[in-house]
Amino acid sequence: MKKELRLTLVIVLLAVFQVSSQEQEIITKDEAIARALENNFGIKIARNQVEIAKNNKGILNSGYLPRLRGQAGAGYDLNDRLTEPEGRENVDQKGIESNRYNASINLDYTLFDGLGRLYNFKSLKEQYNLSQLEARETIENTILQLMSVYYEIARLTQNIEVLQGVLETSEERVTRAQYQFEYGQANNLAVLNARVDVNNDSINLLETRQLLHNTKRDLNVLLNREITNKGFIVDTAVEFIPRLQLEAFVEEAALNNVSLLQMEKNLNISDYAIKISKAGYLPTVDLTGSYGWNRNRSAASAFFPGSTTTTDGISAGISLNWNLFDGGRTSVQVQNAKINNENQELLKKQIELEVKRNIANAWGNYQNRLYIYRVQVENVATNKDNFERSEEQFKLGRITSIEFRQAQINLLEARTSLNLAKYDAKLAELELLQLTGQLLNVGL
Fold first, then answer.
1. pTM for the model
2. Does residue 55 lie in a domain region?
3. For range 204-217, the mean pLDDT
4. Are 195 and 201 in contact (CB under 8 A)?
């Protein structure tokens, strides 16, 4: 009686789950990607890094603008003075006040700095371009991770549908075995075996549901949503890109792969670093200009009356500075910059080779997984036909419950393997798209 009550509770619980799922929000692939692009923390950080690089490459950070400084000052003196002239009476002055004021505006501008400023400005622009590529790489990795979790939810969702069908069939077996036992057509062992299978199927279904809830939480983290929000379902449909289109993407991978594009920018930056270092060999020409105002008031002395003096005027100048010898520091900087540029060249060749290998591996993996998926489609059809025939034979009493259960398990494994193969093939396709630089350009 306890077993029947437990079984009834499980069935009711699963029915509640099924009804509630019909009212859940549907998150499509496009919606998931759009939410990730807007809310994902990693993508937000990457975009902020792009903004920093954008600020650095602006005219305000280029060194081409002049420097304008304002200065002002004031002074006040309060003194006592004793004058002792020879042959005359001493003059004792108390509380002598004097004050002074000054203000100026100074302009400094570098007319020529050996072209270091020019190449530094170009280098900052390349660093901005590099930051955009790094942000793109972050977005690609996030989308790939997002779709991996998304398709795992889809796989588990379809597995639950399969397990629900298995549980329903096992429940029918229990009912059939119970009737047969009551009418003396079977012993109690058949009923017990059927109940054991129902319990096992119920456990498998509940564990899969829990795994589905956990995976939904993973998706919520990527989308920056409320962690406990599990009230949604995903689109389980999958479409594969035509083979000819994928082959065209592979042929153009050298032009679109984000790692190769980043290496191009790094190589340009290291080339500018050489030119910036060589600027130390050339002179710098600086222009200065200022406008100043001064006012001084002095107290009267024993021999001179007090006075107030005010002056104002402008001044300008030009200066040439040339480090004829700086102890070899510039020479060392140039040599190190050249070595770093050579390292970037070597790293570029290495990455080119690795990208070719990764694309070849990804292409092979995709073809194999797509073939496995197609084979699994045929395998499901075969096992479904075998199960239906076994079910008919079981109802007629021509095969045992063990043989029928084996046909049921075979169909279950075939369907879950099909779900796994389908989403594995799609993820392999996405990995190939990322390596060819097309992940953000095609519909997923």
1. 0.83
2. no
3. 94
4. no
